[in-house]
């Protein structure tokens, strides 16, 4: 159990940590010494009496406007040891800004969660400003100094964008949060970037940028500094990610520390619990919170990760009666997007048809038609657009599907991707199974693309458009038809990081 905490993202623009020095050509040792001294000078600036730390609430979700707090370097306490810092009571008002607790920026409309998580933490944004003019009563104009070069020289510019993420309990005073958490974090990150820059100081202009990741099985975010001169798919960057996966005990078959996986700590409304994905009006993860399946003693195996719910009549497009497999494919592709395996847009019906024509599976007349597609066509499209391979399971009758529950459970445990089920003229998306291995009793978690209503989660769940289905329900009615054969498309998770 942990106390409610705050996340303190500190962003330092490159202009603050730009290192400009005149270096003599072919004197690498000179360049390195000057670079190291420049880094030490920047570190000293963090404790400069004239440095300014502006502390402000990052979220706009609260109705209460919390004014930013200005802390100056001369007001900070660098002597008190962290264990000796007295935590402050949020209820006690203090007019001295530097003695305000971090709780001053907490949202009053948030209930205290039992466990810490990035989603439940309040975010306090801290910006670092340097007062170069100090408090001089005289007006000072910018000055330019001229240093004549006696031999051939070059200008070396190194820009570092620092972004540090710290934890602070609510009661810690702001001045101690800055002096004991923020500044040491900045120093550590700058020293890390110094080590990454030194080997190629004179041959490459570094573009280092830190990113923060919330990873499975790790209680706190991890920060990784990436060299942006390398693309994410270049082998050097891939090797770095593989090494990090190994060190952190992460699986090697899914991207977890790509830039797209990084935490978004930008200013935004964090109070919303909307089920829609940012930039999309589609519902996401509609199966969460649905009633149990009714299988006694069963083991539930579910899709791993998020997906979007695609169904009939979305986007003003009438595909009622023929587009269910297209919609199931769109849901599957949305899963690969949301897990950051691909950044392509979810294709339209026409784009799906175009892909099948491009590979020679269909004639050009297929484009713009209302023809059905099945599991095999879906596998072709996934291979062409995403490079994803698929496994196909065939059953001669819907009555045989319960015999595949163990295999389907293994798929969700190991692969975790949504499954398309096609039988007769109907297609469904399978999100999980509940299977009792001893009795053979099982249920299928079905996401039905035949839904034509509004995107109302309660209406969808209460209407049975997303829910557990048994092969034969309590009234003796079969969900899967006994006189139809079924193909199940099991997309395989790409082996990539």
Automatic annotation (TrEMBL):
GO biological process: proteolysis
GO terms of molecular function: deUFMylase activity
Keyword Nucleotide-binding: no
Domain UFSP1/2/DUB catalytic positions: 299-489
Keyword tags: Hydrolase, Protease, Thiol protease, Ubl conjugation pathway
Parts of the chain that traverse the membrane: none
Annotated InterPro entries: Papain-like_cys_pep_sf, UFSP1/2_DUB_cat, UFSP2-like_2nd
Occurrences of domain UFSP2 second (ranges): 120-265
Pfam family, one: Peptidase_C78
Family the entry assigns: Belongs to the peptidase C78 family.
UniProt name for this protein: Probable Ufm1-specific protease
């Amino acid at each position: 159990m942990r106390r409610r905490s705050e996340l303190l993202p500190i962003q330092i623009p490159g202009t603050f940590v730009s290192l400009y020095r005149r270096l003599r050509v072919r004197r690498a040792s000179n360049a390195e010494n000057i670079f190291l001294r420049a880094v030490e000078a920047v570190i000293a600036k963090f404790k400069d009496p004239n440095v300014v730390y502006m502390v402000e609430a990052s979220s706009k979700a609260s109705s209460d406007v919390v004014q930013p707090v200005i802390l100056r370097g001369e007001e900070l306490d660098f002597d008190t040891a962290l264990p000796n810092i007295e935590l402050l009571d949020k209820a006690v008002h203090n007019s001295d800004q530097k003695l305000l607790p971090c709780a001053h920026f907490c949202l009053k409309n948030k209930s205290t969660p039992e466990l810490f998580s990035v989603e439940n933490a309040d975010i306090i944004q801290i910006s670092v400003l340097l007062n170069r003019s100090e408090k001089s009563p005289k007006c000072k104009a910018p000055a330019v100094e001229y240093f004549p070069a006696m031999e051939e020289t070059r200008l070396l510019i190194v820009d570092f964008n620092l972004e540090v993420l710290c934890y602070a309990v609510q009661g810690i005073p702001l001045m101690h949060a800055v002096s004991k958490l923020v500044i040491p974090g900045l120093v550590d990150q700058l020293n890390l970037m110094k080590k990454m820059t030194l080997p190629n100081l004179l041959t490459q202009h570094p573009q280092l940028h830190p990113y923060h990741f919330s990873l499975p099985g790790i209680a706190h975010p991890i920060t990784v500094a990436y060299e942006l001169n390398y693309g994410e798919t270049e082998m050097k960057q891939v090797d770095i990610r593989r090494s990090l996966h190994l060190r952190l005990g992460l699986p090697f078959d899914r991207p977890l520390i790509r830039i797209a996986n990084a935490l978004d700590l930008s200013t935004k409304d964090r109070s919303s619990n909307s089920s829609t994905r940012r930039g999309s009006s589609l519902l996401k993860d509609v199966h969460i919170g649905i009633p149990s399946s009714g299988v006694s003693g069963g083991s539930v195996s579910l899709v791993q990760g998020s997906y979007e719910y695609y169904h009939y009549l979305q986007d003003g497009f009438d595909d009622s009666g023929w587009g269910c497999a297209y919609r199931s494919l769109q849901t599957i592709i949305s899963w690969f997007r949301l897990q950051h395996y691909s950044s392509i847009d979810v294709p339209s019906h026409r784009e799906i048809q175009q892909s099948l024509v491009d590979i020679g599976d269909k004639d050009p007349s297929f484009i713009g038609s209302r023809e059905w597609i099945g599991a095999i066509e879906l596998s072709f499209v996934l291979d062409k657009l995403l490079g994803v391979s698929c496994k196909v399971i065939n059953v001669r009758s819907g009555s045989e599907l319960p015999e595949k529950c163990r295999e389907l459970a293994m798929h969700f445990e190991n692969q975790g991707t949504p499954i398309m089920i096609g039988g007769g003229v109907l297609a469904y998306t399978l999100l999980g199974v509940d299977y009792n291995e001893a009795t053979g009793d099982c249920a299928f978690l079905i996401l039905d693309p035949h839904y034509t209503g509004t995107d109302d989660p309660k209406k969808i769940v209460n209407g049975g458009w997303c829910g557990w289905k048994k092969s034969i329900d309590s009234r003796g009615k079969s969900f899967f038809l006994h006189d139809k054969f079924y193909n199940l498309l099991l997309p395989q998770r790409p082996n990539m990081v």
